[in-house]
Design brief:
heterodimer; A: alpha/beta; Peroxisomal Thiolase, Chain A, domain 1; 2 domains; four-stranded mixed beta sheet; 18 helices; 18% strand; globular; B: alpha+beta; two-stranded parallel ribbon; 36% strand
Chain lengths: 481, 42
Amino acid sequence: MADPAILQTSYILAHAPDFVRYGSKPSRELAVDPSLLEQLTASLRPWEEVVAYPPNQVFIGNLTPAELAEIPRPWFEHLVPDASPMGPFGRIIDQASLYGLMKLSDDFDLITISEGLAQEALSSLEGIFDDRLENITGVPLGEIEALVKDADGMALYHHGSLAGFMKTVLQEDPSLHAHVLFENLAAKATAVLAVSDLLKRGAVPPEDIEYLLNTGEEAVGDRYQRGGGSLSKAVGEVVGCINATGSDIKAFCSAPVHALVIASAMVSSGLHDKIVVLGGGSQAKMGMKFQGHLRNGVPIMEDCLASMAFLVGPDDGQGMMLRLDLTGRHPIGAGSSPQAIYQALVVEPLERAGLTMTDVDRYAVELHNPEITEPGNSGDVPKTNYRTLAAMAVMRGEIEREDMDDFVTEHGMPGFSPTQGHIPAGVPYLGHAHVAMRAGEMTRAMIVAKGSLFLGRMTQLVDGVSFVIEPSPGLTETNIE
Amino acid sequence: MNLKGKRVVAVGEREGVTGPSIKLLAESAGAEVVFSVTQCFV
């Protein structure tokens, strides 16, 4: 039986200021009051500020969460000098590159872009997907103006000006309307880059991948099976994973953690050897808190699509072992209070292994950037979660009440993830955990995710899942040497 | 608290007190809960 490990991580932020207007919340508010667009546009951040924004630098690995905790708030006023869009386990791309990725991922001529935008996109993507660059073509702006005037679909913008068009495939089918296809294509395109970077970083040929598990929240399908479709193989096809099959795991925010556990079980059983868990960006969530940001005079910070990918396989001596004997799950009968959830996800698996809550070096919980959520009166989500964990440690007699703040500091971290649905729950920390384990600075971390099952109005339940990672024995031996 | 004769709409939040928890509390205080829901604000 092989020991499963997370071998590589990959994170992408795609800066897409002209996509914000089509986020679910902005598009609904703009339909009521179109004059809001001017205010919204004026509050968007330029590329340089997005790259230098401290939480974004943490997301791609150029800063650690501990370093972020030392930077005074507001972070958007304390930009990182000389910040790079390239990080050790992630990168930030601009909007032209995103349009290019959408074009080269588009097998049905859904999206049309202008000649100028196509040229800009091509120059930024050369050397990455050379076999598909021929798909990045543009048309004269006049043709796009005609499409906007005469065809069913939505206008697309670049630097605030008309630059493209997304078509509605079938007017009678809401699942194939332009805005749904736009969401799905954005998810596919951002996932494509995350998987491509993942395999390049790990020097793994795409054809070696046997299975793909997509965990995004997009709903692919037509009127007969809304959301029943899959993006896994669609993404793998673009990246060249010709020997892989795949399927999608749907569990709202907790899907990536479910998928990493399932992938590890596949490896452990010998069913598959190399598996990629992936998730593309959530366009619907762009600008979700924009009203709070406008009200408080802060920039609109939900201006990026985030995607990620993880390579799971038998331990190669350099990865993070995923302890299948220490996974946590939230049974249907467990109850939905924060205490009941953490009892099931954190305490129960640790008790089973004879461990205490302080035996885990770091907990990665809901890692939403508080600077995004607080202006919308949603509070500091990670902090609330860490204080709940600390309170449970007090109740269990593992720490004293006056040590709660120290527990939060020592075992938690500030939120640094965009509010992108399935992205923030625990998994943004995996890249940092890998670096810390390679450096011999960490022996155990717990990744904890919660999911809002009730949002679909089919149950009042929440969901949750967790796992523990530890350094591969190979990593430890390397450090000793 | 006595909520006898009162009707309650319970709106909970996933990271705090959930809808079903508020419903249980309100009912135990004698209220008639006409609607309960949990919201996710992130």
